[in-house]
Amino acid sequence: MSDPWILTRTLEKCDTGTTMQVQALESIIEKLNIEDWHSATARFIGSVARDLTFAGRGPQDIIQHIASVCIAIVRKAPTISWLEVYKNLDYEGFSIQSQEGLVVLVHCWRSTQKESFPIQVFFKKWQNVQGQFSVLREIFSAPSSLLVLLDVTQRQVIRTEDLEVLTEKSKSFASHIMNEPCNSLDLLRGLVELVDTHAETHASLMLNHLVQKEPELLCLGLCSIQPLESPNIQKQRMRLIDMFLDGHENSDLVVSLLWHRSPSTLLECFLDRYRRDPLSVSQILDIIQESKILSQVLRSKPYFFILDLASLAARRDFLNLEKWIESSIDIHGEGFVGASLEFWKHKLNNELVRRKDKTSVVSVAVCADVVRSFLNALSKRDYVASFEPLFEQVKSLCAQLFPNEMNAPDITNAEDSLFPPEIEEEVKQYFERLYNDEIAVERIAMLLQRFKDSKISKEQQIFACMVHTLLDEVRYFGNYPEKELSSTARLFGLLVQLHLVSYIPLRAALKHVLDSVQQAPDSKLYAFGIIALSQFVSRLPEWPQYAIQLSQVESIRLTHPKLALSIEKALDNSNSGKSETSPNVLLNRDAGGAKSSSPLLEKGGRVMQKELDRQGLSQRDIINIPYDVPPQHLQDRVSFIINNISQGNLENKTNELREVLTESNFRWFSQYLVVRRVSIEPNYHQLYMQLLDSLNNHQLNECILNETHANINILLKSEKTVQLSSERALLKNLGSWLGALTLAKDIAIRQKDISFQDLLIDGYDGARLVVVIPFVCKVLEQTRHSKVFRPPNPWLMNVIKLLLELYLHADLKLNLKFEIEVMLNALKLNIEDVEPSSILENRFPKELPSGYASQAGQPPTKADSPVTAGVSGVLDPNRLAQYLFFNPALTVFAGQNTIKLTIASIVSDVLREIGEPVIARSSSVAALSSKELLCKDFASESDETSLRTAGDAMVKSLAGNLALVTSKEPVRNSLLENVHAELLHHGMPAADAKEVALIFVSDNLDTVCAFIEKASVDKACEELNLALAPSFAIRRQYRESMTSKPFYDANVLGRLPSSIMLPEILQPTRGLSAEQRKVYNWVTNVPGKNKQDSELAYSAPARVLPTDQSPPNGGLPPNRNQTMTKCEQILSKVAAYVSQIEAQHLSEIPLGHDITLFIRQMPAIIANTSDPASLALSLSQKTVNALYSSQSQLQRDCYSSLLHVLCQAFPKILKELNGWITYSNDERKYDAMAVLSLVQNGIVPLKGLDVQLAQPIESNDTNAINFGVAIIQHGLLCEQPLFNLHDFIVTTALFDDASPTSDAIASAKDVIGELKKLIHAPLASLTTLEDVWSYHRLFAEWIRLFDHPLASDKVYQAFIDKINQDVSQDGRILFIRLAIEYAVQHYISFRGNAGLSKQYATSPIDAFAKLVEQMILRETASNDEDNNSAKVVLATQILSITVLCMAQRHEVEQEKFSQKPFLRMLSGIMMNVCKMNAPDIVPQILVALGNTLYTLQPCYFPGFAFGWLQLVSHRSFMPKLLHLGKSKGWPLYHKLVLALLSFFGPILQSGHLQRSGRTFYRGTLRTLLVLLHDFPEFLCAYYWSICDAIPSTCVQLRNLILSAFPRNMYLPDPYSLNLKMGDLFESQQIPDIQSTQPMLTKAGLMGAIDELAHNDDVHAFSELLLAGIQNVNNAENDTKTLHSRFNTSVINAAILYVGATDVTESRAVPQSHAHQICTHLLSRLDAEGCYLLLNAVANHMRYPNRHTYFFSSLMLSLFESTDDSQVKERITRVLLDRLIVHRPHPWGLLVTFIELIKSDNFWSNSFTKCSPEIERLFQSVARSIQNN
Predict the structure, then answer these.
(1) Domain that holds residue 38
(2) Which residue, 533, 557, 586, sits at the end of a domain?
(3) pTM surpassing 0.90?
(4) 3-state secondary structure string across 154-181
(5) In-domain check, residue 1652
(6) Exposed site from 103, 1071, 1402, 1405, fewest CB < 10 Å?
């Protein structure tokens, strides 16, 4: 027999040129004498497909080569069958490792054959199952350009004809997945057949992947493969079906196709779920109904399940039950009748037992209506006679189960009664006695009441029979004699009044009465209705809708006005909230009859007119539309139409529905559609909308819209909606429906119906966002179909902005954020593109007590003031915070509601501790004093009104002032102390905390004191009125007596002690003297606040203090003139204070000084006016005038600060001020000191003024020149400069270039000379003054150019040309250095200036980064050098200068070194480099940046550590550098990672991290996580050296590195029962890693390892290695060996190199060098050395590869082969240490530990039970692994 490999070996030896030519190949093949062409050709093709290399060729030449070989074979063996060739690929060793291997197989076939690729070959059973799986795996991921699977496969999972049975939604999805490879049934079968073979692990992993990717196709495919022999696959199939039955978005698709493919399988799944949980029938029905297969399922068996399903379907209106029962009896006959009775017997028995034992519900509850329908239908058939005992037993059970609902279901048409004859006879006697006047109606009612509650079965049956008889006889009442009719009506009404009927019977009774009163007034039925109604009129408030219906019956008002009045009164009572119960009267659609009222929701409960008003729905909207409930058969017809409607029959069903519906039952249909369809069937919204569009009835659409609004409003207000997700799902569905009904059709939603912004705000305040946000999002999603209501519609964007504010600031749960994200995606909006609103920024919940106004900023009225009962009304922080002022200029309060609430709590405590005692004391003293004084002065005053008025004025003044004086200092001190302590607790520095506390207390002290003052005044008034009550009574008595005698209060004299001689002026007189009356009039006219200064001393923006005094103008805010007067007074007071203060600057004055308080209060006063913007503008004009008139620096500082405060509160003022000062022609503006004061506060930008000065200076305007000179002298040449050179460069340049033609110019030249000397002084030793000045001026001009908004690339290019012209090549270094120093120094000087923007300090740094970019782009070579090389050299030169500048500052400044300017500079250069459109130089510059960062590593520049870490992980550096590949970017970044760990490693080794260390650790961890996620291959290549740099104590950090695996690899489940690492395909692949030879060569071990390879002297090498790893005196390793006596780097490198060599030479683990070395070292090393050695082994247990398999086997072998329990314990410790930390855990490590604990030898070791704690630990880990 010929050698099958001869062709492969021969062609491998041929040179490249020969094997590419067909003729040469023919001659070679001809010499081989091949007998079995099929086998030889198959092995050749398989070898090429597996290795993808042949005869030294690369992958690109493989296709051409193999095609040539195949053509040559065909020519030499024309009879060869290529199908047999591919069948012969089933040989041992065949496999393909990548997609390229499949390409070889396909192109080999196509080079010789025209037929389709024989893919079926790979679906049959193979001997080499590993090879078969490798092909199937690549087929699954094959691109369509290579292989269209559906064109070459025979059977498909989803076929084209299957689409006809699917819904539109499912059809669309099915069409999409039909093109997936998984749709090949043959491919799935081939994969499934591999499960019970040696390829089980791979096949199971692939199936698990398909479960995640294509569960629909996999489920349908497994159900189509018959039979399934593998038990594992059968379980997988059941799990998949259960997944879709549990609720999946594509459940209807899978269920529909399963029913048509394998109904028995699906039915078995239904039955299995039903047997496990009978309650699951509800979920099963939902799935069946959605899949539209209900009628087919109900025709199957077994009966027990089908009957329960049909019963529930009937209750949900999915089924006409009686018709189905009749049809089923016709089909199944007697068997169905018997099964039905057995079913109901079992069901009713279980329900009785459950109610008796009070156990939980285990099956769907029994419904009386459904039982009635069953027994009614069964009783009509002859079959029931065969089951008479069983039928009677069921009826008896019904009587027991429904005693309160007619005791048994009503069977109107039954031939045999449900009640025994003796019961019916007794009931008949009762009625005869009633009609013969032998027993009163009330007596019968009392008997019925007793029978109802009786436990005797007979009495219960009598009760049920009497009620049944009354309700059944209603149709004959029109024929009753008047006397009998009257008695019956009274009894009928008493049934309702005495609560003898409920639920269904109650609905029927009330409906009969309503129908009767709607008859003609002269009819008997009308008389019956009136009499019955009179009996239970007192219960009408319980049913407001029923009362509304009765109130609309005009005949009652005409014939029985008293009864009509009672109905109206009942309606009023229900509106007043007195209704307590609601049996949902007439809300059930089953209630037959005439007019009814529409429910707002079937499960919504009671609906009152008051609620209708709140919802914006009037009675006219809801009630006056006729509401006829159609007869039952028409209801069934409508239900049938809706059940069976689809896209295909929409037109026909619309016509049918149009015939059925009339205008009078539109509202019934609206209720039916919204409640029973739309709210629970979101998938059919589009279909229902098309139905309404086809009906095209405006009135019907209005009814449906009203019904939708009503249901939504009930759900929004219901507490159940917050608690139950099912209720929220209903609301979301209705929201989507509402949006489709209105916004999608360009119809607005009226604000009175739903105000979405108010809804969101109320939800935010009331903690109901979980209800509101999903609803609003669902409504807004529909705007994507609108032409009007879509972005950027203002209404829509306002709501979206509010949603985004909630998204960003409301601390929403993830599901709510997801709802908002889904809505934005639907509208094609990005979160970053929409600016959130600020409505909620400083809001607090509006849950105010009755004493507060509904909104912050509105004063509480006198009647409901929160302080009328002390301060208890404002002690709640949420309420108190609305009155406090949190200065927006303080960043600690910006959007920080938590801190605000905390401080409000502090204020609340202060009010409680200090305020309440002060209130009690001051009110008591004031009331007592006022009473004595009033009684004396008004002893002869008979008018009680005068006494009361004067008393109120007097006591308010006394109490208020006394409380204010007593409380102010204690409150101030307590607030200051507590707020300061709280801010310190929040981590604020002590100085800042004290400053913020001072500001807050000064802003709010008067507000808090005003609460105490107001409470004292109210309490004092109350006490005074009580004290003066006898005096008021005496005066009323005198007035009523009509006497002419003068009045005198005799009690006054009795209270005056005789020993006290009062002065004459204070003696009691008859009436008030002129002086006394003047005093009281003055007090009365100045109520409460007698001092204007105090009134001005406190206020808060937009907040009104709680005081009785109404504002001027009848409650309106103070008018403009009044407020302007106050402002002028404050300005005058500022000037007065300045004249009295010795300080020179405002910064020298304490923060709590009155002058600073006055300045801060100005915006608060302005904000409380009717037109604050215009008033602020006028005030700013006055302030500017005062500023320019100021004589001292303190005045200028005060007025500038005031303008700064105004500009912050009213930003529009800033523009006006700039216009006045910068662009006006007024000569008065040339006041340098005033302008500099404005510049210091950030009000006037000096750059604009600089430009405007150019023209007057060029015109030799002396004032302008002197002004510019003064600006430079006092702003730039001062000790603390107010600006920098670039801010005033235009004026400076003009002065520098000007000729001294005048004295003004000469003085300007002198100033410029001083400026030059100042700049040149630090660099005097380096270069000349002129060079330094010119370079500074040049860079300053560049900064101004960079800041200009119209600067373009052309402008930049021109300026760079100017730089290249003015700066020589030698001077370029100095220019760059000066630019760097200028930018850094500017940042350091101006970074903390509160008056300037943050951008001002960083602008020169950003300008420098831009300058670097432009200089690099414009750089050209000066000689023959390449331009690109010149650009790279310049970039490297600039970076080097930057490093030198930073090194100098780092060395000089030490701890004070500021890293931020250099961080911004380098990051700016990075980002600008990445934006360059220069692919030839960007990679080289990135490398230069990397080398720069390596130079700046934290070991050398610890002050730059945080900035360095940020740069190394920068998005413009790390990914760009790593994308350069393994040869360029990876080694450099590897050096950076090692530099990071070499700096941080010793810190981590210490084990104790300070706050800065913890922050740096988090940054390091995040950087490594980014590498793990985005560049795992990098970590895979350099893992051992990175782990070598990580301290041994950092277990989680090392685990993170070792958890990296290639992105194209799927990790097998480590917990799989049958997982064998050695069987994995990946375990045969050797990973590509960094070499360890340099480390071993450095340690002097490389020669010993080479000798080991030749002589196998393991003992000698082990001794040498032992000596090498203990040599820790090497200075280079001192940081690593600081805490250890061993050189861990040598240990790690040696173990890896020896193990990798063993792998390469295929040594078995027990005989490997690594195993022998480790065994020897473990016996010689101490505990620490063993731990480090075993750690070195564990470091290589990573993702599946050859090394992981080897070192895992090595670790297990070391454990099994040793008898030393200490070694075993150390091995276990090393593995366990790495697994008990948080994830991630390396895959290989986890698999190794699982294999270890599976061994019986492991649990027999003593260390597993050495202590209870250790034993519990091992058991816990084992359980965790087993559970997974």
Answers:
(1) 6-115
(2) 586
(3) no
(4) CCECCCHHHHHHCCHHHHHHHHHHCCCH
(5) yes
(6) 1071
